[in-house]
Structures are given as structure tokens and as C-alpha cells.
Design brief:
Number of helices: 1
Oligomer: single chain
Number of strands: 7
Radius of gyration: 17 Å
Structural class: mainly beta
CATH class: Mainly Beta
Shape: globular
CATH topology: OB fold (Dihydrolipoamide Acetyltransferase, E2P)
Number of domains: 1
Strand order of the largest sheet: 1-3-4-6-5
Length: 161
């Protein structure tokens, strides 16, 4: 049995970057930060931040581009994928990223200039690309995550699954 599953709950480090492929499919790249907190043997609290590259396709990409902003909390579920490409200087590069299949929008960053009028929703990406003419429900109410309550650790009540 093989399993390739990645689950991230963190904050966006920049606004999503929306592009369109030559075939017309929407793709968004975004970067997320997750924090790990622990207490070492001497009793000192420690923190380590990890940065993750995420790729979203189709309708999921369009929704992320429309509603996500830098500093916003987000839940991404997907799979790990490593790809190779040739950089502009001619060297071969490898990058590992999360290809998102599900997403939940979280609360916006404190002091965010954009209003909170947009509905929060959970979105499941299509399993083979975008489907023309299919739109997400207009006013779908889905619970959101909130990590602002306690900065030192994640509470089990905040985990959306």
C-alpha cells in the first residue's frame, strides 16, 4: 500500500501568484509557513519555522487567488510532488512542493486592509483538472480554522478533522 498525503495548517508568506497555462488552465503558487514549538531539556521554549511551496490547479486556484492574502491562515490537504526543471543559467534544479487537493480558508492577518466580507468556505479540487462552467456554491458556510487564540501550541479543538 502506498500513501502520499500532506496536510498543512499555517499562514501565507506572500499573496498567491495566479497564472494560466497555454491550454487555459488556472494555476496558483503560494508559500506557507508552519511553526513547531517545543521545550528543550533546560526548560527553554524553542520555535522552528518551516516554509512550504504549494501549487493549486483549476477552480481551486481561482478561489485561492480571489480570497487568500499574505498572512492569512489556511488549511491545505494534498500530495507531495518533486519535479525537475532547467534554470535560466542552464543548471538542473529539483523542487518538492505540495499539490493541493483540498483547502479551507482561515482568518485574515490582523491589520489586513481587505475586508472580511468574503464567505469562508472549504473547497475540494477536481480530480482531473478544471471543469468549464462548474462554479462553487455562492454562499456555502463551512467552519474555518483559528490559530490566533494561543500562539504556543495548537489545540485539538482547532484541527478541522
Amino acid at each position: 500500500m502506498n500513501v502520499n498525503k500532506a496536510i498543512l495548517v499555517g499562514r501565507l508568506t506572500r499573496d498567491p501568484d495566479m497564472r494560466t497555462t497555454t491550454s487555459g488552465q488556472s494555476v496558483v503558487t503560494l508559500s506557507m509557513a508552519t511553526n513547531n514549538f517545543w521545550t528543550d531539556k533546560s526548560g527553554t521554549k524553542q520555535e522552528k519555522t518551516e516554509f512550504h511551496n504549494v501549487v493549486l490547479w483549476g477552480r481551486l486556484a481561482e478561489i485561492a487567488s480571489q480570497y487568500l492574502t499574505k498572512g492569512q491562515e489556511c488549511f491545505i490537504e494534498g500530495r507531495l510532488q518533486t519535479r525537475e526543471y532547467t534554470a535560466k543559467d542552464g543548471t538542473q534544479k529539483r523542487v518538492t512542493e505540495i499539490v493541493g487537493e483540498n483547502m479551507q480558508l482561515g482568518s485574515r492577518a490582523q491589520g489586513s486592509s481587505q475586508g472580511g466580507g468574503a464567505p469562508r468556505s472549504a473547497v475540494r479540487g477536481p480530480q482531473g483538472g478544471s471543469q468549464p462552467g462548474v462554479q462553487a456554491p455562492a454562499e456555502e458556510e463551512i467552519p474555518t480554522i483559528n490559530l490566533d487564540d494561543d500562539k504556543s501550541e495548537i489545540k485539538i479543538e482547532d484541527v478541522p478533522f
